[in-house]
Design goal:
Helix content: over 70%
CATH superfamily: MFS general substrate transporter like domains
Number of strands: 0
Number of helices: 17
Structural class: mainly alpha
CATH topology: Growth Hormone, Chain: A
Distance between the termini: 43 Å
Length: 410
């Protein structure tokens, strides 16, 4: 084995360790949300109050996102990963002292900040450690294990609903500590590196991404309708049990796992803009049927199908993004992209929660499905030339930066 192959092998193993650590944090995130969303809907019989938990869980990221992007581009990403895991463990420990609704909202807010920092640190480590030929494989593995961690968190959250509260507190504290141990791999120290792009260069790359950002905001905002209305649909409309709710929520990540098994065979098709645009149509139709169906197990099956469709869309979008964005500006650009992708979720979660006070909420879900179908045509135009445009701007910014360095006096 050549030195280059040994280096790639070691880098891939490093990526896998951080992947495990990131997924453990995701398990804790979903345990928290499943447990407290169901407990709130049962205690208060209010879709609005339950919907505020995912809203707060996703809103917190917007508070830290701008400084976080700079930190990830200028400092050791592995250190950021480990610190966020440690702080998250102590955040969940607050629930030992109080589990009132106000404290739950507070923990949802703070834990979302730390979980998102952890996830973004992982995404930048992926770009830093994996060579370009393996990026789609890394993205596919990341998306597939995303679903495994989500499913694990949902199942564990459902089980913990039947156990004393102390088991939940111990679990939520322990998981981030375990994640920290997986994040002990050495990563690049960026504190002394020259920034080839600067604020102006990053800004120019971001401008090219604006249509992509708006698309991400809309699509992720539509996905959150399952989180906001899932508990109400199962408990209020279908009169289901916590077990039924867990199955319904688990159906989506299970579908993602199933879909990820086929991503290798379809790798040449998934990242094409036409494929992504076409898949938005069945995604919207499935959302529509979930809203209108009154059979619990049909809704569960449709959730699985939705997961299969979404994994192909997500892998395609993330592969296009990862290949196009230079590593030196990845933290700042990834943070901004996440503002729009994750930021759409709390905005839509809050909007869906408010609308549920005035409209029959299954009809709101149906409208979300119709919206996904309508957006398929503009999505094709947005994604078609995105990688080439970003690459052109990045090369121009780099060449300008090199010229400026040459012109500076020694």
């Amino acid at each position: 084995m050549s030195n280059e192959n040994i280096h790639d092998y070691n880098q891939w193993n490093k990526f896998l360790k951080y992947l495990m650590g990131r997924n453990i944090i995701r398990v804790a995130y979903f345990i928290f949300n499943i447990f407290f969303v169901w407990r709130t809907i049962v205690a208060y019989n209010s879709v609005f109050l339950a919907g505020l938990i995912p809203a707060f869980s996703l809103l917190g990221y917007l508070i830290i996102v701008i400084p976080e992007g700079h930190i990830l581009d200028r400092h050791n990403r592995g250190t950021v990963f480990r610190i966020s895991s440690l702080l998250l463990a102590f955040t969940y420990l607050i629930l030992v002292y109080s589990d009132s609704l106000a404290i739950v909202y507070l923990v949802a807010l703070v834990s979302s900040i730390l979980s998102s920092i952890n996830s973004d640190a992982f995404n930048t480590i992926l770009k830093e450690t994996v060579n370009e030929e393996k990026i789609q494989s890394a993205v596919s593995l990341s998306q597939g294990t995303n679903a495994v961690s989500e499913l694990s968190g949902i199942i564990a959250g459902g089980i913990l609903l039947y156990l004393p509260f102390e088991f939940l507190a111990i679990t939520l504290f322990s998981l981030p500590v375990i994640s920290l141990l997986f994040g002990l791999g050495k990563t690049l120290n960026r504190s002394g590196m020259v920034d080839k792009y600067g604020f102006r260069g990053a800004y120019r790359i971001i401008l090219v991404l604006v249509p992509f950002l708006m698309l991400s905001l809309l699509l992720n905002g539509l996905f959150i309708s399952l989180d906001v209305f899932g508990s109400g649909l199962i408990h209020i409309i279908l009169h289901g049990t916590p077990f039924d709710y867990s199955l319904f929520i688990a159906g989506f990540p299970f579908g993602i796992i199933v879909g990820s098994l086929f991503t290798g065979k379809l790798s040449g098709v998934i990242a094409k803009t036409g494929t992504i645009s076409i898949l938005l149509v069945p995604m919207g139709i499935v959302l529509l049927f979930i809203a209108l169906s009154r059979i619990i197990y049909l809704d569960i099956a449709l959730g699985i199908l939705l997961g299969v469709i979404v994994i192909f869309i997500n892998i395609g979008l993330q592969t296009i993004f990862m290949k196009a964005i230079p590593d030196g500006v990845m933290g700042r650009v990834n943070s901004l992209v996440t503002i729009f992708s994750i930021g759409g979720s709390p905005l839509m979660a809050a909007l869906f929660s408010i609308l549920s006070n005035y409209f029959y909420f299954p009809y709101i879900m149906a409208a979300a499905g119709i919206c996904a179908v309508v957006v398929s045509l503009p999505a094709f135009r947005i994604l078609k030339n995105l990688p080439e445009k970003v690459s052109d701007i990045a090369r121009l910014v780099e060449s300008e930066g090199e010229s400026n360095l040459i012109q500076q006096p020694s």
